Amino acid sequence: MSKIPLDSLENTSGTKEVAFLEILNDHFLTQLNFIPTRHDRVLDLVIMNVPDRVCMLEVLSPKESDVFTDHGTVSFEFHASTKATHKIKRTVYDYRNGDFAGLRGALEALNLCNLIQDSDDINLDWTYWKDAFMSAVSDFIPTKKIKGKNTPPWITSEIIHALQKKEAARSKLKKSPTDHQRQKYRELRSKPHSSVHNITIRRWTCTTLTTSEPGEQSVPGAT
């Protein structure tokens, strides 16, 4: 990349170099970084189609960025605006206040096995079974309406707080690159990942049928 004069197609020689710049021009892309990232060469690029939204471009040394590399790290800010997410309302089962003892008794009395017909239509059998099961659930498990943003289920308040602490530590490290700040940022950087992993495991465990006694299974979501 250091051999390509990215600011001028006319001053470019070489088939590959010209082809690269023509691709940028054909797609209305602009290369913004002209600061060397390894010795005196510009090897790391910032290519944008809206260059006026990028500011505060700088190159951090590997020690400043705490990244295992022999290249400088290009740091910049990208300004963008997004539309507010519409709040949604949906009805869910309130398992916390459900009567699971009554539900188990109703399912035992219902004898779901008798709902399976002697036919070759498995879809019809499934519909009968599901309707009977969900009807019993509706009698013993109350519902409630919730509203909020349609965010992924693993983005909890715990995750958001951990991300905010990580960003605060990153800003402090950028202003004062001491060993103490670097170690603190390294610890906070891994916390959101481990939290998401733990939440995923908990959700998988709660939605998996677990056997408490031989021949007895718990209702999903009741644990």
Structure commentary:
The protein has about 220 residues and is α+β, with helices and mostly antiparallel strands. The chain folds into three domains: about 15-80, no CATH class; about 90-150, no CATH class; about 150-223, no CATH class. The protein has helices at about 15-25, 60-65, 100-110, 120-140, 155-175, 180-205; strands at about 30, 45-50, 55-60, 75-80, 90-95, 145-150, 210-215, 215. The strands form four sheets. The protein has a two-stranded antiparallel ribbon with strand order 1-2. A two-stranded antiparallel sheet has the order 3-4.
Topology readout:
Elements: H1 15-26, E1 30-31, E2 47-48, E3 54-60, H2 62-65, E4 73-78, E5 88-93, H3 100-110, H4 122-140, E6 143-148, H5 157-175, H6 179-206, E7 211-213, E8 216-217
Antiparallel strand pairs: 1-2, 3-4, 5-6, 7-8
Helix pairs in contact: 3-4, 5-6
